[in-house]
Design a protein that fits this description.
By secondary structure, the protein is α+β, with helices and mostly antiparallel strands. The protein has a single domain (29-46, 70-293), classed as phage-related protein like fold (Alpha-Beta Complex), CATH 3.90.1690. The chain has 6 helices and 17 strands. The strands form 5 sheets. Strands 7, 8, 11, 12, 13, 14 and 17 form a 7-stranded mixed beta sheet that branches. The protein has a 4-stranded mixed beta sheet with strand order 1-15-16-4, with helices on one face. β15 and β16 form a beta hairpin. The longest helix is centred in the middle third of the chain and has 24 residues, at 99-122. The protein is flat, with a radius of gyration of 26 Å.
């Protein structure tokens, strides 16, 4: 046998390209109110507050005038983008087609950016209100006055008692829990806490199974959204609880991928991904913060 035969041996490489583990879709976008906008800012909603009627005790008396409180909520866009390059020599040296996977990779990053924008909006300290967005409404001040809307960690994870307290706060604020879609953002640790709660998994406590394929997707009228992107500081995770109408996302520019040739980069293929979004609380009383220890 010739000793030169190994020279003819070939190397075989995979043609399959797989994305590493990552969140690929937006989990929060469909759980909040959404609209498209243009311009430097957008008025999400014009709000009128409640009024109280007065007693009419005088015959033919003057008509009482009731001042109706008004407010506005504003949303501001945040542009995000980035380019991935495929060198022209890669087309000749690689068997795999990276272009489609880079497009998907970019879209996944943009969807995560949407979720991060919404998540940051839940407990923002710079929510803008007023006729010309000149007033700042911060979450810390709100919960200092409305204590029921921030549930302390208490050195434990997520419990049924904390969910009950969140539901109580929403109902006490006159949120229509029969008509509104209610959501809770859950980390994997918080979900695991619920799995250990008998009331969440035992049919003796509910008329419908909450546990499906090892996951709790809804319970006590809440729909659960799992996410590892929720704020975590000093082993305390901040879980948002909200009515769908209480949080808004504004889309100035939806997820967009463009593919072009970069002549200034030796004719590399560029996959450029952009998204332009903003988010804001619409009404603080429709949101509750649950703190859990992880």
């Amino acid at each position: 046998m010739s000793t030169e035969i190994p020279v003819g041996f070939s190397e075989q490489f995979s043609t399959a390209v797989e994305l590493l583990l990552q969140q690929k879709v937006s989990k929060f976008r469909n759980a909040v109110r959404s609209n498209t906008y243009v311009g430097k800012s957008a008025q999400v909603v014009q709000q009128t507050g409640p009024v109280n009627l007065v007693d009419l005790n005088t015959r033919h008396g003057d008509t009482p005038i009731i001042d109706t409180p008004h407010d506005n909520r504003w949303c501001f866009p945040n542009a995000k983008g980035g380019a991935q390059l495929i060198d022209w020599v890669d087309d000749f040296q690689a068997i795999a087609d990276f272009e489609s996977s880079y497009v998907q990779n970019g879209a996944s990053a943009a969807n995560r950016a949407i979720d991060d924008t919404i998540i940051n909006g839940f407990f923002s300290e710079t929510t803008k209100t007023g006729e010309d967005h000149g007033t700042t409404t911060d979450w810390a001040t709100f919960v200092s006055v409305n204590a029921g809307h921030q549930i302390a960690a208490g050195g434990v994870g997520l419990t049924i008692a904390k969910l009950r307290a969140a539901k109580k706060a929403l109902m006490a604020a006159e949120v229509d829990v029969d008509q509104e879609m209610l959501f809770v953002g859950l980390s994997s640790s918080a979900h695991d806490d619920l799995l250990g709660e008998t009331q969440a998994t035992n049919l003796d406590y509910t008329d419908r199974p909450a546990l499906v394929d090892g996951r709790i997707k809804s319970f006590m009228g809440f729909n659960f959204i799992d996410s590892e992107r929720l704020p975590l500081a000093s082993a305390e995770r901040r879980l948002p609880v909200w009515a769908q109408s209480g949080m808004a996302v504004g889309i100035w520019g939806d997820v967009k991928n463009s593919v072009s040739i970069r002549n200034d980069k030796n004719d590399a293929v560029q996959i450029y991904t952009t998204v332009m979004v903003g988010a804001t609380r619409v009404e603080e009383k429709k949101i509750v913060e649950i703190l859990v220890t992880e």
